[in-house]
UniProtKB/TrEMBL annotation:
Residues 6-57 form the Sensor histidine kinase NatK-like C-terminal domain. It comes from the Bacteria. It comes from Vagococcus allomyrinae. This is GHKL domain-containing protein. Pfam families: HATPase_c_5. Residues 1-22 are annotated as: Disordered.
């Protein structure tokens, strides 16, 4: 199981360890921006071995 360590942080949040390619997805900053645009909830947390993301969209 991968470990979330300091190398996964850039001071502004988590960064990927994947090689650059078109299949990265939407990105957490993009998703967070959309949630913020609608004044809804985006909550991200992690431990060394777990990552959780809660998105509540009620104003869409």
């Amino acid at each position: 199981m991968p470990i979330i360590s300091d190398k996964h942080h850039n001071g502004n949040g988590l960064v990927t360890t994947k090689k650059a390619n078109p299949s990265h997805g939407f990105g957490l900053k993009t998703v967070g921006g959309i949630v913020d645009k609608y004044n809804d909830t985006f909550d991200m947390a992690h431990t060394e071995r777990e990552f959780s993301l809660v998105i509540l969209m009620s104003n869409v």
